[in-house]
Design brief:
Blueprint: E1 2-8, H1 12-27, E2 31-38, E3 53-58, H2 68-85, E4 89-92, H3 95-109, E5 113-117, H4 126-135, E6 141-144, H5 147-153, E7 171-173, H6 180-192, H7 194-197, E8 204-208, H8 217-230, E9 235-239, H9 245-254, E10 261-265, H10 269-278, E11 281-284, H11 295-300, E12 307-310, H12 313-319, E13 326-329, H13 334-346, H14 355-364, H15 367-382
Helix pairs in contact: 1-15, 2-3, 3-4, 6-10, 8-13
């Protein structure tokens, strides 16, 4: 088989997920190609894993959501590439350019199409929703990364023990996967050298995520004045970048806590894990409108660091419930968040307290499990 994976060039989180699946395809003596749409507006692409081919499709940057120049250029180039490369499976992800690609692949070349839905349906604008609905008939399999995402597309989604929808087997659940063994090795190393890794002598709270309103960082900043009264040397560190940086800085200044906020931007993935492992608390304050899985939450569950997360359906699905080392606060409620943070900063936790979280991630969200599920799906479609 020749599997073509397709998304925007700068969609780093999705490409990291696809890496493990593509490598499993290659290990099974098949071919994998990353087809990346580039419009010059996104951050530089990640290099593909060894053995994975790469095809870049350069298009003009869209000036508005339905700009015909970008879509026309992509359709022409993708059509030509399919004709030459003859992939046997096309795996699309986000709706731009996935909606265009799956129509071309299926309608013009009869190539089986797998689509993974990573985002909550209501988080997309009406134009994107229309594109998804109009082209989903061209997908042979539609995968959802959580039950929350599935039910946002299909309220009657009812998976069996294999994650396949009892009402329509074209739809299924495959959880996102993380490299459990690698992350545990990074965490162990971080704990061994924790004195050197700690950026300050006071408590450190850490969040990982893009600087956009949907990630909820403003809720944490709103809670900081009360928290720093008890912990005057506390730092709140956000690892990520995005358009909300200035607004977050202004909010911190207006509340008199700017000196307690650090936003170093994006860091290497291993460095993010190391910082989570040595922090005093990991805060996951996302709003429910956009969060489809919470990859950083699953990773944090391996770091043996107390976690405070917003009580949104997908976080409850990933976490599997509350415990002494993982607690929830009311979504968007800074007072509720502050109470939970004060609790973890006042407490002590032995490593055994974290074992249920580690076991849950290893059992449900290991990358090997995800990769095998996709490989099995590709084989089913190819043998039809």
């Amino acid at each position: 088989m020749h599997i073509a994976y397709l998304d925007r060039s700068g969609a780093h989180a999705i490409w990291r997920l696809m890496d493990a699946t593509a490598l499993s395809v290659i290990a099974d003596s098949h071919r994998a190609t990353y087809v990346k749409m580039r419009d010059g507006r996104q951050r530089p692409a990640l290099p593909p894993p060894t053995g994975v081919s790469e095809q870049n499709i350069d298009v003009p940057a869209s000036r508005f959501s339905s700009d015909p120049r970008s879509t026309a250029s992509f359709k022409h180039q993708f059509r030509s590439w399919c004709q030459k490369a003859a992939p046997q499976i096309v795996h699309t992800n986000f709706c731009v350019p996935g909606s265009l690609a799956r129509k071309i692949a299926k309608r013009q070349f009869q190539i089986p199409v797998v689509t993974t839905c990573h985002e909550m349906f209501d988080s997309m604008n009406p134009f994107l929703q229309w594109g998804v609905r109009r082209t989903e008939k061209y997908a042979d399999a539609i995968v959802y990364i959580s039950q929350g995402v599935a039910q946002s597309y299909r309220p009657d989604f009812d998976p069996d023990q294999h994650g396949v929808d009892r009402n329509d087997p074209r739809h299924r659940l495959i959880y996102n996967g993380i490299d459990v063994e690698h992350i545990q090795a990074v965490v162990q190393q971080a704990h061994q050298t924790s004195a050197q890794n700690r950026p300050t002598s006071g408590p450190v709270l850490l969040s990982v995520g893009r600087l956009v309103p949907e990630k909820g960082h403003g809720t944490v900043i709103a809670a900081l004045p009360d928290i720093v009264r008890r912990h005057p040397n506390l730092k709140y560190v956000i690892l990520g970048e995005g358009p909300n940086r200035d607004a977050l800085l202004q909010q911190a200044r207006s509340l008199g806590v700017a000196e307690h906020l650090e936003m170093p931007g994006w860091v290497d993935h291993n460095e993010a894990i190391r910082q989570m492992a040595v922090a005093d608390g990991v805060i996951m304050p996302s709003l429910s409108v956009q969060e489809g899985f919470g990859l950083a939450l699953a990773e944090a569950m391996l770091c043996e660091t107390p976690i405070v997360a917003s009580r949104i359906p997908v976080f409850e699905e990933v976490a599997g419930g509350e415990s002494d080392v993982l607690s929830f606060f009311r979504e968007g409620d800074s007072c509720s968040l502050g109470d939970r943070v004060q609790s973890i900063l006042a407490g002590t936790n032995e490593s055994k307290d974290f074992q249920p979280l580690v076991d849950r991630v290893a059992e449900k969200f290991d990358v090997k499990r995800m990769a095998q599920a996709y490989l099995d799906l590709y084989r089913q479609l190819h043998l039809r």
